[in-house]
Design goal:
With 128 residues, the protein is an all-alpha fold. It is 84% helix and 0% strand.
Length: 128
Amino acid sequence: MDPVLLIVGLALIQFLVFGALAGKARATYGVEAPAVTGHPGFERRFRVQQNTLEQLVIFIPSILIFQLYWSPNVAAALGVVFIVGRLIYYRGYVEEPGKRSLGFGIGFLAQVILLLGAVSGALLALLG
């Protein structure tokens, strides 16, 4: 079993759950589609979903490339850190937007390590 693919799958499931929670909030707070503004409870969940989508664009390629040049186990561990960071981000943002920083920072740090590892690994391979 490839631990990195498992982590990517879990990150995608987390994204789907965030989307479902935003959809539930849309119904709960009466925010009719296509509106993306309305009740703060909906807007917070919607922003978490959208921000997570934005982060996945960096996270998924980075973790897949990182594992090729360094270690699948280290990549998977960093992936777990990313997922936990997104969960903390969700909880903080929904409670009070100002409380999202810790979760964002945790996930962002994991992402930066994965991205720098991916790029440096590719560069070292290219140089020989």
